[in-house]
Write a structure and sequence with these properties.
Radius of gyration: 20 Å
Strand order of the largest sheet: 1-2
Order of helices and strands: HHEE
Structural class: alpha+beta
Length: 93
């Protein structure tokens, strides 16, 4: 991933943090929330796909166990932020 910033942007950020240090924690919380919201459902889907040995909605004759959608769950990360994650469903569990 390539990121382009101007020279002034880091100085503006440092100035903002010095002026309102409590905003730094809020910025970190929001970044963690966005990252978890983005990657956690995909990681869970990959894990279940590996466990079942087939992709979502893929059927294998004679086997009932397959992925069939997801269920919204909320998690609190170390008291820092609450995230909502679509957890893939395994009907046999």
């Amino acid at each position: 991933m390539k990121m382009k910033i101007t020279v002034a942007e880091p100085f503006e950020l440092i100035h903002e943090i010095r002026g309102q240090p409590e905003n730094l924690f809020e910025m970190i919380r929001e970044d963690v929330k966005q990252t978890v919201d983005r990657y956690m459902p995909e990681l869970m889907d990959v894990k279940l796909t590996g466990f079942l040995g087939r992709n979502r909605y893929e059927r294998i004759k004679g086997k009932r166990n397959h992925q069939n959608g997801s269920k919204l769950r909320k998690y609190t990360l170390k008291g820092m932020v609450v995230v909502s994650v679509n957890v893939p469903r395994d009907p046999q569990r």
